[in-house]
């Protein structure tokens, strides 16, 4: 449409000026005037310095020979050059191998089977625990204390914790032993793949007690969500200090914090109950009392609630780490 207008105006001025006046890109004008070529693009002309068919066959024969079939192109090219033989450049060797489907890594490669995704299900307190270790800043730069925390994934109740100057498998073993002496032995304990979590003392303890061991996949933080979420609640709390003056200060703070966390903190993941309430079985009674209060409020002022009656938050039926597949649930039923 616009090309004839450009051509007419170009007779009075020039194509460049006509395109500029009409707002038409000059390249678009020239492309529109050229006939479109249909069919395959013309093949690239053969370079005059290209290897002949016989020379290509010779190079391929050398590269795939028993002597060089397991060597890289660079190794082959350098070895031949040391022997006074030059067949072609390394890039040409790569190009010939690609053309005949023989390119790629020739050495044996290490293969690592994928780690099994942990799938744990808890339908009541005391079934599955999760534990981890996090660092908290000490009084000086480079000084860190190690905070060990074990919690029940169903109730979110912290069943054990300790703050130590170092990370040590014996400390972890002692902490788990004491926790199981107070709260009973769980069916499974989940942790990441830290040195203490996979250590022989901890592994032997769980084996002796018949507790299933579960570990996160490498570099997958989502496999340990309950411990990670609890640490975030701790470190993002307004009262959490930037640094602790001593190991005693860190222990005193954690004593207060975990007391609050277990007995006062209303957790959104457990129907806004406290972990202690869910862990010790009083949450059902508390929810009934909440519902009674809401029913009374609705009876007094139903117009404030619209068409829906207020409902107290429900308790979870289950908690899991990577929700098990239906097939796994059938097998474990």
Automatic annotation (TrEMBL):
<dbReference type="InterPro" id="IPR001584">
    <property type="entry name" value="Integrase_cat-core"/>
</dbReference>
<feature type="region of interest" description="Disordered">
    <location>
        <begin position="25"/>
        <end position="49"/>
    </location>
</feature>
<dbReference type="InterPro" id="IPR012337">
    <property type="entry name" value="RNaseH-like_sf"/>
</dbReference>
<protein>
    <submittedName>
        <fullName>Transposase</fullName>
    </submittedName>
</protein>
<feature type="domain" description="Integrase catalytic">
    <location>
        <begin position="121"/>
        <end position="283"/>
    </location>
</feature>
<dbReference type="InterPro" id="IPR050900">
    <property type="entry name" value="Transposase_IS3/IS150/IS904"/>
</dbReference>
<dbReference type="Pfam" id="PF00665">
    <property type="entry name" value="rve"/>
</dbReference>
<dbReference type="InterPro" id="IPR048020">
    <property type="entry name" value="Transpos_IS3"/>
</dbReference>
<feature type="compositionally biased region" description="Basic residues">
    <location>
        <begin position="26"/>
        <end position="44"/>
    </location>
</feature>
<dbReference type="InterPro" id="IPR036397">
    <property type="entry name" value="RNaseH_sf"/>
</dbReference>
């Amino acid at each position: 449409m616009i090309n004839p207008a450009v051509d007419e105006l170009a007779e009075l001025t020039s194509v460049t000026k006509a395109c500029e006046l009409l707002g038409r890109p000059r390249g678009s004008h020239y492309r529109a005037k050229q006939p479109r070529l249909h069919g395959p693009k013309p093949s690239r002309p053969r370079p005059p310095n290209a290897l002949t068919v016989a020379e290509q066959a010779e190079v391929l024969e050398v590269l795939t020979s028993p002597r060089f079939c397991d060597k890289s192109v660079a190794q082959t090219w350098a070895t031949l050059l040391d022997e006074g033989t030059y067949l072609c450049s390394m890039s040409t060797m790569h190009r010939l191998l690609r053309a005949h489907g023989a390119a790629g890594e020739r050495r044996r490669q290490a293969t690592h089977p994928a780690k099994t995704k942990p799938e744990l299900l808890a339908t009541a307190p005391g079934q599955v625990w999760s534990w981890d270790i996090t660092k908290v800043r000490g009084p000086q730069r480079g000084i860190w204390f190690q905070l060990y925390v074990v919690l029940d994934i169903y109730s979110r109740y912290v069943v054990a914790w300790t703050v130590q100057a170092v990370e040590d498998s014996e400390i972890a073993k002692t902490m788990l032993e004491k926790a199981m002496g107070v709260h009973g032995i769980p069916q499974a304990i989940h942790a990441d793949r830290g040195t203490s979590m996979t250590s022989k003392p901890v592994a032997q303890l769980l084996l002796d007690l018949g507790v299933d061991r579960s570990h996160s996949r490498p570099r997958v933080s989502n496999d340990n969500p309950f411990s990670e979420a609890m640490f975030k609640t701790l470190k993002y709390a307004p009262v959490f200090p930037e640094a602790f003056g001593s190991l005693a200060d860190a222990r005193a703070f954690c004593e207060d914090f975990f007391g609050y966390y277990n007995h006062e903190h209303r957790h959104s993941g457990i129907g806004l109950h406290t972990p202690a309430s869910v862990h010790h079985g009083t949450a059902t009674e508390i929810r009934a009392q909440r519902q009674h209060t809401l029913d009374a409020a609705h009876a007094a002022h139903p117009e404030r609630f619209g068409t829906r009656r207020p409902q107290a938050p429900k308790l979870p039926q289950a908690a899991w780490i990577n929700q098990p597949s239906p097939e796994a649930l059938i097998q474990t039923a």
